[in-house]
User: Fold this.
Amino acid sequence: MTLAFDSAGLGPGFADPVFDSQSVFRSVLNAVAYPGAIERLAHRPGAPEGLDPAMASVVLTLCDLDTPIWSDAALSSEAVSTYLRFHCGAPLVAAAADARFGLIGDAAAMPRLDAFAMGDERYPDRSTTLVVTVPSLTEGPQRQWSGPGILRRRTVAVAGLPDWFWADWALNQGLYPLGVDVLFACGDAVMGLPRGITVKE
Amino acid sequence: MTGDYNFAYLDEQTKRMIRRTLLKALAIPGYQVPFGGREMPLAYGWGTGGIQVTASVIGPRDVLKVIDQGADDTTNAVSIRRFFERVADVATTEKTTDATIIQTRHRVPEANLVEGQILVYQVPQPEPLRRLEPRETETRKMHAYGEYGLMQVKLYEDIAQFGHIATTYDYPVIVNGRYLTAPSPIPKFDNPKMQDNPAIQLFGAGREKRIYAIPPYTTVKSLDFDDHPFTVQRWDGACALCGATDSYLDEVVLDDRGKRMFVCSDTDYCGQRRAAGHVGEQPDMDDALEPEAR
Amino acid sequence: MYVAVKGGERAILNSHKLVAEERRGDPAVPELGLAQITEQFRLAVDRVMNEGSVYDPELAALALKQAQGDSIEAIFLLRAYRTTLPRIAVSRPIETAEMAVRRRVSAAYKDMPGGQVLGPTYDYTHRLLDFALAAEGETVPEAEQAASPLPETMLPVLDILSHEGLIEEEVADREGEPVFDVTRDPMSFPAGRDQRLQNLARGDEGFVLGLAYSTTRGYGGSHPFVGELRMGEVSVEIVPEELGFPIDIGDITVTECQMINQFKGSAEKPPQFTRGYGLSFGHCERKAMAMSLVDRALRCKELGEDALYPAQDDEFVLSHTDNVEAVGFVTHFKLPHYVDFQAELELVRKMRAEQARVEPQEAAE
Assistant:
């Protein structure tokens, strides 16, 4: 069955779903626990054109029929949508605020952060996790990150984000304990930016 | 190896659900995230929360240590370790420093943990306010608004009545300046180890279906008052086996006339110290202390 | 690979052997077969399926055999096994009106379409120990067949009342709406009726029975009539996505209780009877009846009644019905608590020492 879809241009997913997703999860867990650290992924699934391999790994590891996904125009190709539906069975939703996961293929054109679910006071966990594809995790403008998971502070240089991103992030951080959480995806690596992290120039 | 069961017992969908929960838990330190806890083949209250967390995190390259009361050889620790040997075929160890994942009940190991290590706590009651307010609808509101006056009042009443805060274990903490959190029934002796720990601390409450976390390098403050600052337990003596004066000691009754001695609760810590040549006052009592369980 | 092996491990393995020995009992006595349990301990099997949330008599029998007949241990075994089963499909709601009825009684009406069907019940047995059963090999008496078969569809007795508007309308057909899933979703409060009914259905029979009893003794103001209690077989249907029409995947035995309760009415509603509902796998009348009473008690808020008693409190009831949770937690207190006990010892000694220092001074003053 997988082969039939492959011939239609779909990536095959993880070679070993149980162990590959475990390994990717540990990298993502570390990424969220140690924000700003670059976590390399040991396993990447085959992915269709336009879907960053690290993003594909994260999605295959965390998403399924219980996690509505919103994806941006850059990820709206038939191949990507079919891949997501086939490999995760995840429902694709039209409203960003309804999504458990927001997938961004083109960071420069991404929606403002407040378009996504922030959770509510009683259940702050019910917020969107954004997975944002970026061109580089090291070659962007330098910022100082601090907060849970970071010893004192860490200098991080994510590239390709829109001008308003860090101002929006300050607003998001101001909503703590509400707010979105972000995972940056870049080729074979991920980096976590949970809501509790303060970012300064 | 695992017979009819999936790697680490849980099916992949359940693991994904728990993994998502763990990430949200790390993003909101100290906040209890509800999760769809499953029945496990071990009894609720016996570590099913910790087991589900460990099962969702563990992989074939991990080295697992399981302790109960600080010791690797207590029966429930042995039983949980056996479970993972059986369903996940992982390597196990008693050495804190060799372990990538440590599942624990009631203690934080004495040895310093390092970045990348994961400490999984078994939690019987994740809600620090539960004994003061039995209703989830109420305690959830208190957390939503950060209203923890009820706990402050309880601790202050202790001081008024006993001259002390009469909580010695599961001593409430504020995590990252926001959430009142149960450290699980560790002695308050261990509370300071939670603060700014380089390791990842994950908490699983299976029966109550809650998961929470303390990320590395996070502030964890034990509640106290200016005129009654938080203090930890201290012993006059030292470990009878290794001579340690900085570890949590268990009291062992030696005869029926009340004769007793104190030994390290963390068996690996004690063993490492003795291997390094440290000696306590009654080093030969070791055999007497570990009568073969029958 | 370094594997820790200590005395504890040997003790555990040995304890398993001791259990096996006790389970088998005297080897001179023939071993129980699963078929004997499913055929001759059917009510025990039904309870285990019910609270274990798995309809499979053979697995329930295995669980009972393994647990030496301890139903709660058997329920736990079945629940733990259930965790590992994939969910293949979600069935359509069962139609109890189309039940192949084996038993059907109403306390509200003397007769109604389809009639009363006493069926197999202990209700009118005199509870005299039957020593004839002790002697094996007795011939089993054969029950007489009725002259004519029962009608294929027996409408619920409560429909008779609803024609007159004397009982609240049954909730409209909500097939297709999302339903709470107690096996997957953590409990949340206030709980909807879907969550409450699922929780009660798998709740401990003894606990639910006790709560139900309390509602009839003043702790809940319940004035119940069994509108109808029926037991028999219903078919289970699923609609496979690729077919688009329902297919029958088999029959299950269920017991259903529709309890009628008095209700005075309110400013918005004229006086009418209200419903309490109970459903169980297999033949579990006690459970279905108790469930329907507690269901009604828990509906107090939606009916505008004051919630004054334990059985009306959804947080209290739903948090404590599950015997797998309850047993686990109550018995965990036998696990070692040396560390915490040591912490308490240290504090009590310290406080006593301080008191001893203070008191002589006070005496001197």
About this structure: Strands of chain A lie at 39-40, 69-71, 101-104, 129-133, 143-146, 154-156, 181-186, 189-193, 198-200.
